[in-house]
Write a structure and sequence with these properties.
The complex is a heterodimer of chains A (128) and B (238). Helix content of chain A is 52%, strand content 0%. With 128 residues, chain A is mainly alpha-helical. The radius of gyration of chain A is 20 Å and the shape is flat. Chain B contains six helices and nine strands; from the N terminus they run βββαββααβαββαβα. Chain B is α+β, with helices and mostly antiparallel strands and 238 residues long. Chain B folds into two domains: 102 residues; 120 residues, Alpha-Beta Plaits (2-Layer Sandwich). The chains are: A mainly alpha (128), B alpha+beta (238). The interface between A and B is large, with 45 and 43 residues.
Chain lengths: 128, 238
């Protein structure tokens, strides 16, 4: 875990306040969002033998989640374009629902939360 | 290993702070009329602790008080003095142009949060189930429309906030919705004497948009307006 640069520990010698040009009584909220903005795909897989499985699972599940969302979006476009029959819509919807259930199971097995599968690529923006 | 703080247009800079990261003495490395301000470090990996980050910042700011400065990104380490010299020589004309551009100017940062109902969320699947495949997909279609509409509202609002501030700046950068809640992330390069008027305009925006929350910081060295000044030794290895 990197130290949080957005909110350096309060320190009398470091007048953090002098850098604030407007009254901000809710720095915590800003810090949370900045952390989310920089929380991207792991730069390195954790090679600690205990944790390597979870690190790989995180990467693989993130990619699967990305593909699932891309396919869902593709399906949405086709529904809007009117190029799917009722039957096809039903079957696609069932498939996506089952995929989602399976993803939830995998996330539980590897003890990963939604926050861990972050599709935001920071400076490159959202993949979607 | 040599740690880099900044490049200044004054090769005879005299009023250096006493010491740099880890208490090491500060040294200048001059090339023609420009100079890099450096200090020796033991390792290429500098921990981004609050102490180290503020030390870097204080040194850059002390230099800024005396001359034009290109701040180098925190954590930049080169192999040795020869590498610093080579960098200065190789990018000399780029550095001189950039120093001229930032001279007498500072960076102000602005971040704005919004609480938008139905704002785009990362968890758009929400784990909800439906009675049929069709109902599931139709709910997704509806969600997708809301997300798109909110994104458009957000981008329009971010541009509306940025406009009057960008007008006061020499240069500016802005990005809307880096995260769903972070409506605007912007940096403005302003003349020193524009800091107070800028601050007043941000306050006026805060009053005009009471539902938004503003975080305006600075004045900073112009980190966002100098590009990648130097690529570090360890970045090149990768």
């Amino acid at each position: 875990m990197k130290p949080n640069l957005a909110t350096p520990a309060p320190d009398a010698r470091r007048p953090v306040g002098r850098k604030l040009l407007c009254d901000a009584d809710d720095l915590e909220d800003f810090a949370t969002e900045l952390e989310r903005a920089s929380n991207t795909l792991p730069q390195r897989i954790n090679a600690d033998p205990e944790k390597v499985e979870q690190g790989l699972a995180k990467l693989v599940l993130t990619l699967i989640e990305l593909l699932r969302r891309l396919m869902e979006r593709q399906a949405i476009h086709r529904i809007e374009a009117g190029s799917l029959t009722d039957d096809e819509i039903e079957r696609l919807g069932q498939t996506f629902m089952k995929l989602q259930v399976r993803m939830e199971e995998l996330k539980q097995i590897f003890e990963l939360g939604d926050e861990d599968l972050n599709l935001n690529l920071g400076p490159l923006g959202d993949l979607m | 290993m040599i740690y880099l703080y900044a490049i200044t247009d004054d090769s005879e800079v005299t009023t250096l702070p006493e010491s740099g990261i880890g208490g090491a003495p500060l040294l200048t490395c001059a090339y023609r009329e420009i100079a890099a301000v450096t200090s020796p470090v033991a390792s290429a990996e500098i921990e981004p602790t609050a102490d180290n980050v503020w030390r870097h910042e204080e040194i850059v700011e002390a230099l800024m008080a005396e001359s034009a400065v290109l701040p180098v990104r925190f954590g930049t380490v080169l192999a040795d003095k020869a590498a610093v010299q080579a960098t200065l020589a190789a990018h000399y004309s780029h550095f001189v142009t950039a120093l001229d551009r930032v001279c007498g100017r500072v960076e102000l940062g602005l971040r704005v949060l919004w609480e938008e109902v139905g704002c785009p969320t990362d968890k758009d699947n929400g784990g909800r189930m439906a009675d049929s495949g069709r109902a599931y997909l139709m709910a997704r279609v509806e969600e997708e429309h809301q997300v798109q509409a909110a994104r458009q509202r957000g981008e329009a609002l971010a541009a509306e906030l940025d406009g009057p501030l960008a007008d006061m700046a020499v240069e500016s950068t802005h990005r809307a919705l880096v995260t769903p809640r972070l409506l605007l992330t912007a940096a403005y390069l302003v003349e020193q004497d524009q800091v107070v008027p800028f601050q007043q305009r941000v306050r006026a925006l805060g009053a005009a948009y009471p539902a938004l929350r503003f975080l305006c910081t600075g004045p900073w060295p112009p980190y966002s307006f100098v590009g990648a000044v130097v690529s570090t030794a360890n970045e090149r290895e990768r």
